[in-house]
């Protein structure tokens, strides 16, 4: 459905608050191996590292819950409006048709997303600097760091 002005809204939008451990959280196909954690972790200057079946995200903080929004789109929606500190893209495959946002220790952040096969992902983030300032000072907080993750199917 196209709304006035020709803008196509996302197919779905979900809000999550995943637990961040070791300054990371992950989006992965829960039934596929290897996991993105097995394939390498983001460098300290990267916000994500893609593996074959998922993506590991690097947070600015640790032991807290960032605000994460995941949008599913029919096609590339373009970079989101607003002021974002960093934006990065990756590709991943979900052979099971499911993606799960979870902590690197395995704690699910909410229900799995239903997707079809290969996906493109664009991650936007802000507030990582403020979350980093809280390292070793505060734990267990929520929000502060925000993520918008856009997913859309890749076309062969």
Automatic annotation (TrEMBL):
It comes from the Bacteria. This is Uncharacterized protein. The lineage of its organism: Bacteria, Bacillati, Actinomycetota, Actinomycetes, Micromonosporales.
């Amino acid at each position: 459905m196209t709304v006035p002005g020709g803008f196509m809204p996302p197919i779905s939008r979900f809000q999550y608050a995943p637990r961040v451990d070791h300054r990371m959280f992950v989006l992965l196909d829960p039934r596929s191996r290897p996991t993105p954690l097995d394939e390498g972790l983001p460098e300290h200057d990267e916000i994500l590292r893609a593996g074959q079946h998922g993506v590991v995200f690097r947070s600015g903080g640790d032991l807290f819950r960032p605000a994460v929004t995941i949008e599913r789109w029919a096609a590339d929606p373009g970079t989101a409006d607003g002021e974002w500190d960093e934006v990065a893209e990756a590709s991943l495959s979900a052979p099971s048709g499911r993606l799960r946002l979870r902590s690197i220790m395995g704690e699910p952040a909410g229900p799995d997303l239903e997707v079809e096969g290969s996906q493109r992902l664009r991650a936007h983030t802000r507030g990582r600097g403020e979350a980093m300032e809280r390292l070793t000072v505060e734990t267990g907080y929520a929000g502060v760091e925000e993520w918008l993750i856009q997913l859309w199917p890749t076309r062969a």
